[in-house]
Amino acid sequence: MKQIYVIGVDISKSKIDCALMSIDLNLLKEKEVANTDLKVKAFLSKLLKELKTESSSVLVCCENTGIYNRPLERVCKELGIDLWVEHALKIKRASTDMRGKDDRKDAIRIAEYAIRYQDKQVLYQEPSKIVKELDNQIKIRTTLMDKKTAIENQLREAKSHDYEEYRALNEGYKLVLKAITKSILKAELKIKELIKEEEEISLNIELITSIPGVGLQNAINMVIATNNFKAFSSAKHLACYAGVVPFQNQSGTIVKRARISKMANKTLKKLLHMAAMAAIRVDMEIKTYYKRKVEEGKNKMSVLNAIRNKLVHRIMAVLKRKTPYVELNCY
Fold first, then answer.
1. Distance (Å, whole) CA 217 – CA 117
2. In CATH, what number is assigned to the domain containing residue 101?
3. From CA 61, how far away is CA 83, in angstroms rounded?
């Protein structure tokens, strides 16, 4: 059934504000609901009955607010309602009226955006159980690594400038560092076990890491961000998502340097940057390309970004072919 109703949802930690609109932009109902599975399900179920329609005729649109989206995501999946999770900046830039701001107005703006750009909707897909658990373990590992690095940096600075302070800090942090290291190893072991559990994920990670410069953490985060590459159909789409595609910056006769968009997955962008730096060292083709472009006078960061883009295309290429990367001796 064609979608004839759109619900714009503004999400906060404790509540969601909903604006129901018909496809011809008529505001039919507004409602504030507690941000829990029980309340959200009760509201949407009751709404379907009031409208005397099926779930397939309703589209729910919300901004990406991270973990606060989870109740709505779970309920929409359970009720079979299409959910569109959009980048907040896209909705803001598309709005024609930004006078005043509150949760109610934001819900209406989201609904209007979903109707006007309905042909560009990208429906939410619930990640598999393995992908979600991988995400949890990666978060644990990343957080603990950051804490461990911060403590080790503090100890190193104290050791070089104030040995008495170092002794006191070392004594206080000793057990903590030991526990953090143990927890990191436990998370890494769990990650390896999870990868082995699903053959498709294991194969994809093996293919991605066959590319010079692209390591295990990069591959795992790619799998998580893309729902094991079910959410992206092309290299260009993924490159845009990762924030490594430069866009023209021109107005009339004023032409500025192309810039990458801020609407990006910052984790992937950071990991791809590290992969690009590694590729310059270990991949002769990339190394030759980087050296040539820099000698031509190109900005080093622009060249690095081109390499990040190239790596994304390589990743999608090996996944499409289902064969490991083979370096060509053509440089």
1. 35
2. 3.30.420.10
3. 6
Same domain, residue pair 114 and 135: no
Q: Distance (Å, rounded) from C-alpha 287 to C-alpha 122?
A: 37
Judge contact between 53 and 18, C-beta under 8 A: no
pLDDT digits (tens, 9 = 90+) for 1-27: 478 999 999 999 999 999 999 999 999
pTM for this entry: 0.83
Quickly list DSSP for 160-179: HH-HHHHHHHHHHHHHHHHH
For residues 186 and 300, the answer to whether their CB atoms sit within 8 Å is no
Residue 271 is assigned to a structural domain of this protein: yes
Are the C-beta atoms of 131 and 228 separated by less than 8 Å?
yes
Helix axes 199-208, 216-225, angle to 10 degrees: 130
Q: Can you give the residue range of the structural domain that contains 52?
A: 5-120
Q: How many domains does the chain have?
A: 3
207 belongs to a structural domain? no
Give residue 58's pLDDT.
96
Q: What is the pLDDT of residue 19?
A: 96
Q: Are strands 58-63 and 82-86 parallel, antiparallel or unpaired?
A: parallel
Q: Sign of the CA dihedral 306, 310, 316, 319?
A: negative
**Mean per-residue pLDDT over the chain, rounded:** 91
Residues 209 and 219: their CA atoms lie apart, in Å, by 7
- The domain boundary, picked from 86, 120, 154, lies at 120
Question: Is 331 within the bounds of a domain?
Answer: no
Could you tell me the pLDDT band of residue 264, with boundaries at 50, 70 and 90? confident
